[in-house]
Amino acid sequence: MEAALKKEERYTYADYCAWPEWERWELIDGVAYAKDAPFEAHQSIVGEIYGQLSNFLLGKQCKVFLAPFSVRLNADTGDDTVVEPDILVVCDDSKRDGRGVVGAPDFIVEVLSPSTARHDRVTKLRLYQSSGVLEYWIVDPDAKTVTAHALQGGAGYVKREFDEHDAAAPVRVLDGCTIDLAAVFNM
Predict the structure, then answer these.
(1) Which domain holds residue 94?
(2) For the chain, what is the domain count?
């Protein structure tokens, strides 16, 4: 199943800001994609990862945020790409503008839902890599896996795989941070 489109039109951040607050959309190159309400397993996983990251980052410069929190990936050019990752970490305070993030976060986590799996694995993977997101995790609640993509200079993303049997998964961009996967997948 593919994420639903709003209309066959091109949109910008200004359009996105004008839409009703209760409607959840993302823009990628001006195309609007619907954000469905997440399932219980999705929310449990997001909550656990967010909690672990939040505890690790206490007293540190980096900040962790939960969706809905807007990330404008091309505000300096077309301003037609706005995503709302499930979890994101930003270490550069100048990227936060009070409404969201302008530019690439350091770390993004997307938890798959049936309606967004292909979108997260293909479209967002390409988008985050080309935008300079340093690390992107795709969490699959059904398979109980984490696919971690870390940006390696000009070579693009390097992929690592973790599953529920791995004790912990290291977050490469946060030195010393690991995520306890047994806790994440203990649903």
Answers:
(1) 38-184
(2) 1
